[in-house]
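Q: Structure tokens for this one, please.
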Amino acid sequence: MRALAAIFMASALAASPAAAQTRCITAPEAEAMAQVALPDIIRQTGVVCAARLPATSLVRQTRGVFIAKYDAAADRAWPTARGAIVKLSDPMVDSLLGSDFARPLLTSLIGPLLVGRIAVEDCPVIDRLVTQLAPLPASNTASIIVTTLQYLQAEKARGQNVAVPNLPLCAAPK
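A: Here is the predicted structure, written as tokens:
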């Protein structure tokens, strides 16, 4: 969830405060952004958790079927994610995002921001979650992340003490 939050925040940096408040992205756009970020986040989590997890842990895999599934999903999701980033920021960003360097730059900036917050004592729980989600398509994992964020934002809006950032997600359908 923090991955998605960081992507949203990074993409909204170029937007004016008023524009950022009036713009939102749909669940499919948010899911595409999550799919783009997930491979790097998984890889970097594996590095952070290397001392706490066995080498066979899915989180520690840098290649193979598991991570290839996320890489392929990220490639397919990039056009939609790119459009969402442009939607949240200034349309002039569109030409910058067309560069072959834009996506790796964005994910390399976001990954450390999120993964740097991982407490190593949480690595076994993270590994268990990743293992439980592994049989699902990457798009389902991204959907779970976005649905969870939407739920937590709704709880926060109802006055619950929920630690979730204010993200530019369009209201979830009821």
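A few notes: The two ends are 21 Å apart (CA to CA). The chain has eight helices and no strands.
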